[in-house]
Amino acid sequence: MNSKFILLSIALLMPIYLAQNVSIEKLLAYNKWSSQNLRTFLSEEEKLFRQLVFFENLQKVKDHNSQDHHTYSLDINQFSDMTEEEFAEKVLMKSHVVDLHIQQATSNNSTSTASSNSASNNAIITVDWRTKGALTAVKNQGQCGSCWTFSAAALMESFNFIKNKNLTDFSEQQLVDCVNSANGYSSNGCNGGWPESCLDYSSKFGITTLKSYPYVGVQKKCNITGTNNGFKPKSWKQIPNTSKDLQNALNFSPVSVIVDASTWSHYSSGVYNGCNQTNIQLNHAVVAVGYDSLGNWIVRNSWSTAWGEQGYIRLAPNNTCGILSYNYQITA
Ligand SMILES: *[C@@H]1O[C@H](CO)[C@@H](O)[C@H](O)[C@H]1NC(C)=O
Ligand SMILES: *[C@@H]1O[C@H](CO)[C@@H](O)[C@H](O)[C@H]1NC(C)=O
Ligand SMILES: *[C@@H]1O[C@H](CO)[C@@H](O)[C@H](O)[C@H]1NC(C)=O
Ligand SMILES: *[C@@H]1O[C@H](CO)[C@@H](O)[C@H](O)[C@H]1NC(C)=O
Ligand SMILES: *[C@@H]1O[C@H](CO)[C@@H](O)[C@H](O)[C@H]1NC(C)=O
Ligand SMILES: *[C@@H]1O[C@H](CO)[C@@H](O)[C@H](O)[C@H]1NC(C)=O
Ligand SMILES: *[C@@H]1O[C@H](CO)[C@@H](O)[C@H](O)[C@H]1NC(C)=O
Ligand SMILES: *[C@@H]1O[C@H](CO)[C@@H](O)[C@H](O)[C@H]1NC(C)=O
After folding, report:
1. Where in the sequence is the signal peptide annotated (predicted)?
2. Does the CB atom of residue 115 touch ligand 3 within 6 A?
3. Fewest Cβ atoms closer than 10 Å to its Cβ: which of 97, 107, 243, 288?
4. Which domains are seen in the chain, by residue range?
5. Atom 11 in ligand 5: which residue has the minimum CA distance?
6. Is 133 left (phi over 0), alpha (psi -120 to 50) or beta?
7. pLDDT tens for each residue of 213-260
8. Does residue 213 sit in helix, strand or coil?
């Protein structure tokens, strides 16, 4: 960083920041952040607004980290110039749509709805599929509500590894583009969708490689030319909503899970328990990849390795953030 440039911007912006009670320390933090997170602005007003949002988030992070009763810490990251509402709008799915889907899926399949097998608990003490080489590098969905395709692709990647010993990145973009109403699915590109729809689609058409159908983060026309020979899951099942059932399932393979990620934007490390457990809003699809000896869930996200613990989050035991609610696993 050019120190003359920093001094000049401080001199120019100082009156505004003094009014907002922004310290030099925060200003330097902003300069550092903005050099790593390139943004374009429609106007000077927007630029100023984003800076103020950043300062507010920075304060929240500092306040949280200065309280020592927390089991997790927060940090500044790529979401730090977004308000909570914008984050929900641009990155998460709509929880009322998710709820409706789960309700319909559950009532449509009332006879076959997963019932708990927790009596037969053969789960071992800890599981972590990362240590078995079953997971590809963590991805970044960007500002597109395509979490459901990342959850499904990671599930298929790890199953392909477990079954065929082949770890290959699969194409989320194919799922964003092709798992649509024209193919008979209620999924909706960057506006959300369902991992199990991706499994159903892929069982028919196959999922191709990331390399041959790269991610662009907007919905395009489905282009399945020559992809009918990709990986095809044969069967999958819903996991009953108890901790024992999820643990048992994780002994076989990673599991696609739906969670409430409303409060996750600045998670950095530790065991997360910051969801409002009396008001769970399911709005994000991710992948459970294991649990530790204390029963904490290890979860893979799709917000790049800059977020969380190298792209992963640990969730406190039981139904933290709704993790037991609506889960799928490939079985063949
Ligand atoms: C500005 O920040 C200082 C130090 O953090 C604090 O003591 C003071 O009350 C703040 N002033 C306003 C107007 O918020
Ligand atoms: C449930 O069934 C209804 C009526 O048959 C159908 O419109 C809806 O798409 C189904 N929902 C799911 C999630 O399968
Ligand atoms: C519901 O059951 C039908 C038929 O058994 C199956 O094709 C479908 O995948 C199931 N849907 C869910 C959401 O489990
Ligand atoms: C793994 O799968 C990919 C994609 O299907 C294929 O190109 C590659 O040759 C396979 N690797 C091995 C070692 O079989
Ligand atoms: C569709 O995919 C094929 C094969 O990967 C590629 O050559 C072609 O350019 C793609 N078409 C469009 C419109 O993206
Ligand atoms: C949690 O949600 C409940 C129900 O909406 C609400 O009354 C409560 O204030 C929320 N708690 C926190 C800490 O936000
Ligand atoms: C939560 O998980 C812990 C550890 O696995 C267990 O001892 C406890 O009974 C669970 N609590 C509930 C309410 O399920
Ligand atoms: C778990 O599923 C059962 C139905 O199988 C349902 O009655 C119950 O409300 C669910 N519990 C939670 C915490 O989602």
Report:
1. 1-19
2. no
3. 107
4. 3-69 (no CATH), 87-330 (3.90.70.10)
5. 223
6. left
7. 999 999 999 988 655 678 999 999 999 999 999 999 999 999 999 999
8. coil
